[in-house]
Amino acid sequence: MAAPEKEKMYDMEVKRRRVKEGGGYEPFWKVKKVADALVDGDTEFRCKDCRGEVKVLGKTSKAGAPAYVEHKHTADGDFCPSGLGFKRATDGRVTRWSEKPVA
Ligand SMILES: [Zn+2]
């Protein structure tokens, strides 16, 4: 199988708030399609696989080409199961969490 040309992830995690037991709210991360998150106006994102920072791309592209995210830090993608660097690596490396995770 050929190595992927470009890093494109169509799912990510978005930060949401839910009602906490005993009152108040608590944040939690939810996996969501990038395109849906943009429609819903979510503002806090991270990679669902390594928790690293991501940037949203392709949101202005026409229908049929959904928005996607890629790692903001190349180093995250080198060790993320969804990362281009990791998929291309041939050294038998193992995945790890981002060194700069979004909390
Ligand atoms: Zn990642």
Structural class: alpha+beta
Total count of strands: 5
H/E series, N to C? EEHEEEHH
Helix content: 10-25%
Spatial order of strands in the largest sheet: 2-1-3
Q: What integer is the average pLDDT?
A: 92
Give the uncertain stretches in residue-range form.
Answer: none
Largest sheet: 3 strands, antiparallel
Small ligands present: zinc ion
Total helix count?
Answer: 3
Determine Rg (CA atoms, Å).
15 Å
Number of folding domains?
A: 1
The global form is flat
> How much of the sequence is in beta strands?
25-35%
Terminal Cα separation, in Å? 35 Å
Describe the structure.
By secondary structure, this protein is an alpha+beta fold. It has one domain. The protein contains three helices and five strands. The strands form two sheets. It has a three-stranded antiparallel sheet. The chain has a two-stranded antiparallel sheet with strand order 4-5. Strand 1 and strand 2 form a beta hairpin. The mean pLDDT is 92. Bound molecules: zinc ion.
Task: Describe the structure in brief.
The chain is of the alpha+beta class and 103 residues long. The chain has 3 helices and 5 strands; from the N terminus they run ββαβββαα.
How are the SSEs placed, and which strands pair?
Elements: E1 11-19, E2 25-33, H1 34-40, E3 45-46, E4 54-57, E5 68-71, H2 74-77, H3 84-88
Antiparallel strand pairs: 1-2, 1-3, 4-5
The structure holds zinc ion.
